[in-house]
Amino acid sequence: MKTIDLSGKTVVISRTDSIGDVILTLPLCGWLKKQFPTVRIIFLGKSYTVDVLKCSPYIDEIIQLEDWENASFEEQVKRVQNLNIYAFVHVFPNKHLAKLVKAAKVPFRIGTSHRLFHLLTCNIRPNFTRKNSDFHEAQLNFELLKKFGIQSLPSKEELVEYIGDFKPQIPLSAQLSSLLKEGKRIVLHTKSQGSAVEWPLEKYLNLANQLVEKGFTVYFSGTEKEGVQFRNQLPHHANIIDISGKSSLGELITFINECDALVACSTGPLHLAAVLKVKAIGLYTDLRPMHPGRWSPIGIRSVALTANNSDNPKLEDIYSISVQRVMQVIEE
Question: Where are its TM segments located (predicted)?
């Protein structure tokens, strides 16, 4: 198979969905820079993931999808052409973007063969399936780069390497800085905005009480909407602190980086902690395709816990993960 040389060229990585999915796409950027040091990488994503993308050392330019949406199709075509793109990788399939990139006559347009509209818009269509695969989501993304020289999917250890030095870029507000107490700090992120099955709130509250007895300061994070769901139930303790709704995403990244650990289900902040090299403890079901084999956090200090029911897995198995087991992993 002839390899496409991206040296000195511009490639777009397009992933226009959620924070966790974007993080699991970042290893593509690291691999491309290692393989082609002079390649220019543009990442096309949603505006709310920009603060994540700014932390990557391998992205040369970020384009927000929303910046294009108010322009006419013809104007969007001109914008794509002005970027002088050599290859466009549709990591997250988007019918409009696929039509746009073809209209702009980008030379190499890569998208999975499992989308009918890619048959008419992409000229490189790798044939692979995600749903029943034994590979991790971040590994499967590399199927889209095989024309650039990928011989085999990277190991999970290599994925960590390709993330690179993921660094916070936004300073903390005075309000958040004042909440950082001396000693051990841990973030409990109880919600997922519906993207994953969640560990029960009462277990997080029980965990928080045990943690403060061990000398931790516990921070409950989330959006303002999520905070409304739990803040009135938080124990009254000087070292149990609600930070929900108090930060931008960029500030939350910086705050997590100042902590020792984070506990959450399969959601964006869990993946952020992992790439920040903070101990990231993820709570999962063994049910496919939500299982940790597909969605565990990428990081040298990440741990994925399940109820160990792989024989007959159910969504609600996550409820069976004990507080004591989570506590044990935190203290290891």
Answer: none
Local confidence band at 1 (pLDDT 50, 70, 90 cut-offs):
low
What is the distance between the alpha carbons of residues 151 and 162, in angstroms, rounded to a whole number?
16
Instruction: Please give the mean pLDDT across all residues of the chain.
Output: 96
- With 0-12 / 13-18 / 19 or more C-beta atoms within 10 angstroms meaning exposed / middle / buried, residue 285 is buried
Residue ranges with strand state E in the chain: 10-14, 40-45, 61-64, 87-90, 108-110, 184-189, 216-221, 240-242, 261-265, 279-283, 302-305
Phi, psi angles (nearest 5°) of residue 208 = -60, -45
Domains of the chain: 10-163 (3.40.50.2000), 175-331 (3.40.50.2000)
* Nearest-angstrom CA–CA distance, 115 and 130: 13
The mean pLDDT value for 162-178 works out to 97
0.85 surpassed by pTM: yes
